[in-house]
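Researcher: We're reviewing a set of sequences before deciding which ones to prioritize for further study. For each one, I'd like a predicted 3D structure that I can look through quickly. This is Flp pilus assembly protein CpaB. If possible, include the structure in token form so it fits the rest of the review sheet.
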Amino acid sequence: MKSKMVLMLSLVMGMVTTILFFQYMKQTNTEKAATVETVSVVVAKEKIEKNEKISSEKLGIVQMPKENVLQNMVTVQAEAEGKLATAMIEKDEPILSHRLGSEKEEGVYVSRKVREGYSAVSIGVNINQSVSNLIEPEDEVDVIFTKIIKDAANQDVAQSVMLLKKARVLAVGRKMQTPENTKEPYTEYSSVTIEIKPDEAVKLVNASEEGKIHFILNKRPVMNEENKSKQND
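Model: Here's the predicted structure for Flp pilus assembly protein CpaB, in token form for your review sheet.
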């Protein structure tokens, strides 16, 4: 009987000790968590593509231990909004300052304006071929190819065909900004750079070697959100 009492007391004391131990550990962990200093860090709520203009809908804020925060991590959401991603940013990845570019900076590089699946091709032009130098970046142009052929009487005649329709103009000369976005004075240019599919680029280059290229200026597209995104891509 005495031995049973001792055994029961031992079991009870063991259970009490275990409970007290877990309570102590829980309290200790809570105190440690309370003392960890955190910092707000901006992250991508969803995947952001390279050259994409970053909207507020794609950004979020998370708390990170201060000791884990890198110097180039963006901590204020406004610093990333409206910027262009210079590299792809995965979902939940912290936004790093060196991966952000401004529209002004992007205007220096025509390669950053080219959309995925397209190429940039420059064609030499004179005043007549370029609609009296009135073509501007972000205009849309049709491309006419003209070459001299022999007719049935063996006479030289000009033959013109529509080579491309509604090609997006990326640059005229070295100018890549639209008139409303730049204060650069007017300068004549001798080349027009357009954005076209790779197979169309080969056709255009071959045509420019065989004959003459003329541009037909279309009505300027309305700069809605879709067209603005194309300009910033």
